Amino acid sequence: MTETYENRPRTGGVYEPLGAAEPVLQEADRLRLRAGSTTVEVTALAPDLFRVGAFPDGRPPEYASEAVAEEDWAPVPVSVRETEEGLALATPEAEARLSLSPLRIGFADRSGRTFCADDAELGMGVVRRGEAGFPPDSEPVMLHKRREEGERFFGCGERTSGLEKTGSHQVFWNVDPPAGHTAAFNNLYTSIPFLLSLRGGRAYGLLFDNPRRVEFDLAREDPRRVRLGAEGGDLVYYVFCGPTPRRVLERYTQLTGRTPMPPLWALGNQQSRWSYADEEEVRRIARAFRERDIPCDVIYLDIDYMDGYRVFTWDRERFPEPERLLSELRKEGFRTVTIVDPGVKVDENYPVYIEGRENGFYCLTPGGEEYRNVVWPGLCAFPDFTSDRVRRWWGENLRSLLDEGVSGVWCDMNEPSLFVPRHSTMPPDVVHPGDGRPRPHGEVHNAYGSLMARAVREGLLRLRPGERPFVITRAGYAGLQRHALQWTGDNSSWWEHLWMAMPQLQNLGLSGVAFCGVDVGGFFGDCDGELLARFTEFGVLQPFCRNHSAKGTREQEPWAFGEPYESVCRRMIKLRYRLLPYLYSLFEECHRTGSPILRPLLFEFPEDETTYATDDEFMLGSALLAAPITRPGIRHRHVYLPEGSWFHLWSGERFEGPAHILAHAPLGEPPLYARANHAIPLGPELSHTGERSPEDPLTLMIHAAGGSGSTTLYEDEGDGFGYREGVYARREISCETTGRRTTVRLGEREGSYEPGPREVLLDVRGIRGARTRVDGEERGFRVEDGRLLVSLEERPGETVVEIEAT
Ligand code: GLC
């Protein structure tokens, strides 16, 4: 049976938990045991990271995975001791506890607090299907964990519905769902089988690494139990001991890879439409942005730029001179990004198709024929991206786009999405020839999208080694953040989807995919002025900010609905441009530590359980809290402010958290709160594009109130890889307020990049100054609209500003 979105068969069979185990080997960092015919290995990869592998039916340990980036871990001091139940493998920070009869594995921190313990009754094991004709590694594997009282679950990558996933059933199987996904839909385009658990402020993470179909039952069937299962293969999982969400994410992104530094222009506002039909339309759109003074850095060409949807070609009637068009756009400050789908049109006169076929680069039917299905171009063949050679070939084909001036590549339909039947994906028995190791599609399904994005990123790096690749993907697997940013596919112009974008992006961020965004304005269906304005208020705070919409829907460029909406969109997009230095610093923090850019409140305040349910608000970094309006006609909403002092960005009003407040939010003034003592670096007021000049003045906006805080300012050339050789400038900006005194410290500049010469304007709000000293010397200041402004010079050493309030 061909598998469609709805009709996927469930697997039967009898679950067989592992029984008693015997240790068979002990190495520096690991224990190996044998339970019946299953080999189990527990390895300490880092003081707070364990890997567990179970390999049924005598199969040897094997951990290679598209999810994993870091394979060479520094040795960890590990000790093994005998316990009453069995053995413990201890690092300086945590231990894995194994009871041997039957084999059950759990974890404990240094204080002895246990977490992520196997369910005593069910543990891990295999579902015996007892059917002839299946290879043994197609039998499902399962892991059962005990859910502790009060334990709550988050993450799971791209999901519908709310932030918290406790009590839910999660399916991981990449599909292109039918239009208008609601909370009733489960799996979407990407699969990241990663859980973040929180209990009383203590976090741990679990990655269940298997690119086949995976399902999690998160205490839905039994409130005391969690079940994680895959449709076959080995059972491999990683436990990140935390104890904070920040630590979990740091380790998780060390294992699965960090978000690469994007080019600065990628943070700018972006505009798309399926499709801008021809050169003239593209020019008209670009002109409108400039004439209307709405900043924009990137314009997209959707599928209609191609000749009959043949990838790596141009429709020469609609786009007779792409090189000229793209260079004109470039002069106006626009980059161009083109879409590329995996399906290659079956066409005897199309060299790309022929070349792929002659080299055996396509997926095959079980009978060895080229596997074909229908996508936009009609009948297509599908590259086997599991092969290095195929990925190289795909990457090389990008040359034809780059030669015309394309700046970035948008990978779509890479679940892969197939049209026969509608909303289907590749049948599990399609064969990936690989590089000499053929594998059925079902074994690699969820990784297909990541592998395509990888082909593109690696190709761009080979073709333009001096530039940071810009790659977008719709489908992918854990670790996709190494290759591409993720946009969340086809949302709708619905208020419900504006709301859902918040939990969705927060869970993506908690699952390592920090560079993400939803289509601003919504893709399917007709937008309207108010929805677009509110969507843009939210959208400009996304790591990836792109307005995109489907064929046949109303136009939804920022000016499409006239006033007052156009002005709101302009104001919000300009706010994003002012925030670019802050956003860019957050990207660097993410690149260095894995911390999400758009993050849930619980990431910053894990001790505060009220934040666990606050999924219609989020933090942009650690300094800015946003509580978007997501219903029509509404001018007020409830906002929860966690501990500390907060300042309403538009009125300057101060609030003491924890508090539940009612925010007034007319159009154009979304509820945004600055966290006291956390500096927010801002760029100049007006800018058409994200391109910056080193002379641009830099403003450090700080809201002072009793307490302390710090953020990081990071700058570099905005593209290229000089930062890897130290060509960057990073400094910590801390602020402490006690009584009447506020001290702002601009830490010593790290790195050799020279910003400036420029003015650095300290913009302190919330206090009135009577006396200001810079490095011990009296310094003048001015007061404007209640803001205290101190002008500083850009210099590499530490600068200390002391403000004595009246
Ligand atoms: C898919 C994409 C969408 C794109 C369309 C045409 O639906 O998700 O963004 O516009 O295909 O290429």
From TrEMBL:
Domain called Glycoside hydrolase family 31 N-terminal: residue spans: 39-217
UniProt cross-references to CDD domains, sorted A to Z: GH31_glucosidase_II_MalA (cd06604), GH31_N (cd14752)
Sequence ranges assigned to domain Glycosyl hydrolase family 31 C-terminal in this UniProt record: 594-680
Keyword Hydrolase listed: yes
Stretches assigned to the Glycoside hydrolase family 31 TIM barrel domain: 259-586
Pfam families: DUF5110 (PF17137), Gal_mutarotas_2 (PF13802), Glyco_hydro_31_2nd (PF01055), Glyco_hydro_31_3rd (PF21365)
Residue ranges occupied by any DUF5110 domain in the UniProt entry: 697-765
Coiled-coil intervals: none
SUPFAM superfamilies: (Trans)glycosidases (SSF51445), Galactose mutarotase-like (SSF74650), Glycosyl hydrolase domain (SSF51011)
Family: Belongs to the glycosyl hydrolase 31 family.
Full protein name: Alpha-glucosidase
Organism: Rubrobacter xylanophilus
